């Protein structure tokens, strides 16, 4: 059975009518940032939605503004217009309490000229305050409005009734195809590579993703901090070495500045959203700006990624305009090895989001990094290494008391976690723990990924202390 995509429903409307609140209601979690000020959403954000068993992809878009295309609001509007291409339905959201505005009328005229079916959604329609706007919305010429309260979950069943005739059949077909594919595929695979791009503001994260996709999918510009939400995009990459088609989920994040500089409430929400994106990623690319080099904030971001147990790599962007490139690369390499001693030798790649240089190399390294991050070492091979490590450098005997390390096992992957069993482990110096971690990384193929080692002593109530 051929794969069938879920139907796609686009949410459109002027700023601050509750589009992102409706998006969060439909996907069942707070994926999109929500705030009282208009213009919070700037890039398209996709999520898996379900209404009474009907599954579809819902797309949150930037607020429609009547601005020059060269301005940031104008570019946001162009993104919204492009999002309608290939959609199965559009939900045009108005604010029932505010009533119909000239901008609502302009959007309605544009939607009537499109071929995509439109469901008119009157949000904030709860109570008497929304009644007038609900009735007034008939004048937009888009049929009967669906009165909802996205914040309180009212009217969602009516929304299902309006969408079902448009996308119900395609939703059922996609679900049947997915169930068939799942029954046919018994192989355990890692699935799409979840790749997050992080870094300081204006490092070129969104430009890099646009270059990978070959389209202006994300808003970019000279203004720092354009990206606010963490945006996930599913994409297929063709490996130039093997010709293999590989699935990737790209995650663009908001720029992460020093905490002292993050004073605006909205930016605090954006940075927190970026931190959550790191949690969901498998491999994280820390993007540096070649014109600014490696700064202390970059090391703090890298340390955050490693603390979360994600696989980390570093890409130096804007390489096409870098000065004294060789000295810059070697300087960053040395600073990383010094500042991130726990993962010496992590991948460092020079790229240009503008020209595409080094991007295939970056993606190839990301897949290799995930393999190391997901690797499991057979117990026999692990303990052979362990015995050799103990023989080469036996544990110390503080105060004449011998520390016994008996065996090691791998407790988990992603990140790799190991448990060492023995006695008197509370007396084992931290330097010896580092010796074991470094040995695991260098000898067992975990060179550039964070490794966790836990020491565990047997709990024997009859054991006497020496």
Automatic annotation (TrEMBL):
InterPro entries: G_ENGA, GTP-bd, GTPase_Der, KH_dom-like, KH_dom-like_a/b, P-loop_NTPase, Small_GTP-bd. CDD domains: EngA1, EngA2. GTP 2 binds at residues 199-206, 252-256, 317-320. GTP 1 binds at residues 13-20, 60-64, 123-126. Pfam families: KH_dom-like, MMR_HSR1. The keyword Repeat applies. Residues 7-171, 193-374 form the EngA-type G domain. One of its GO terms (biological process) is ribosome biogenesis. SUPFAM superfamilies: P-loop containing nucleoside triphosphate hydrolases. The keyword Nucleotide-binding applies. One of its GO terms (molecular function) is GTP binding. Keywords: GTP-binding, Nucleotide-binding, Repeat, Ribosome biogenesis. NCBIfam families: GTPase_EngA, small_GTP. Belongs to the TRAFAC class TrmE-Era-EngA-EngB-Septin-like GTPase superfamily. EngA (Der) GTPase family. Associates with the 50S ribosomal subunit. GTPase that plays an essential role in the late steps of ribosome biogenesis. This is GTPase Der.
């Amino acid at each position: 059975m051929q794969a069938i995509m879920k139907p796609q429903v686009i949410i459109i409307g002027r700023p601050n009518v509750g589009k992102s609140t409706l998006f969060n209601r439909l996907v069942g979690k707070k994926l999109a940032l929500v705030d009282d000020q208009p213009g919070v959403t700037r890039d398209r954000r996709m999520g898996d939605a379900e209404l009474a068993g009907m599954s579809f992809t819902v797309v949150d878009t930037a607020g429609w503004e009547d601005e020059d295309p060269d301005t940031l609001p104008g570019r946001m509007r162009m993104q919204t217009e492009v999002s309608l291409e290939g959609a199965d339905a559009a939900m045009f959201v108005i604010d029932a309490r505010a009533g119909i505005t000239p901008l609502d009328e302009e959007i309605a005229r544009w939607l009537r000229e499109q071929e995509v079916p439109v469901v008119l959604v009157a949000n904030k329609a709860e109570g008497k305050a929304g009644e007038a706007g609900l009735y007034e919305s008939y004048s937009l010429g888009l049929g009967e409005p669906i009165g909802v309260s996205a914040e309180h979950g009212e009217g969602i069943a009516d929304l299902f009734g309006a969408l079902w005739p448009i996308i119900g059949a395609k939703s059922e077909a996609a679900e049947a195809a997915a169930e068939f594919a799942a029954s046919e595929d018994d192989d355990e695979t890692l699935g799409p590579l979840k790749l997050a791009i992080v870094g300081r503001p204006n490092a070129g994260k969104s430009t890099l993703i646009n270059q990978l996709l070959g389209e202006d999918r994300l808003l970019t510009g000279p203004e720092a901090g354009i990206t606010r939400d963490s945006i996930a995009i599913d994409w297929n990459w063709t490996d130039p070495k093997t010709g293999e088609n590989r699935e990737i989920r790209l995650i663009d994040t908001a720029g992460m500045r020093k905490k002292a500089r993050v004073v605006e409430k909205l930016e605090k929400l954006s940075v927190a959203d970026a931190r959550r994106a790191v949690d969901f990623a498998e491999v994280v690319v820390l993007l540096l700006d070649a014109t600014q080099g490696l700064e202390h904030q970059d090391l703090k971001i890298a340390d955050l990624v490693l603390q979360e147990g994600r696989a980390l790599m570093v890409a130096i962007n804007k390489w096409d305009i870098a000065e004294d490139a060789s000295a810059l690369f070697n300087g960053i390499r040395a600073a990383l090895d010094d500042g991130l001693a726990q993962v010496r030798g992590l991948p460092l790649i020079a790229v240009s989001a503008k020209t595409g240089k080094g991007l295939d190399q970056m993606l190839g390294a990301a897949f290799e990094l995930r393999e190391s991050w997901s690797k499991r070492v057979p117990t026999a091979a692990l303990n052979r290494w362990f015995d050799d490590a103990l023989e080469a450098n036996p544990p110390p005997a503080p105060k004449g008391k011998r520390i016994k390390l008996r065996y090691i096992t791998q407790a988990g992957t992603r990140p790799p976690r190991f448990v060492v069993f023995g006695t008197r482990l509370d007396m084992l110096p931290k330097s010896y723990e580092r010796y074991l971690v470094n040995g695991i990384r260098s000898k067992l193929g975990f060179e550039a990924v964070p490794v966790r080692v836990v020491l565990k002593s047997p709990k024997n109530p009859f054991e006497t202390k020496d």
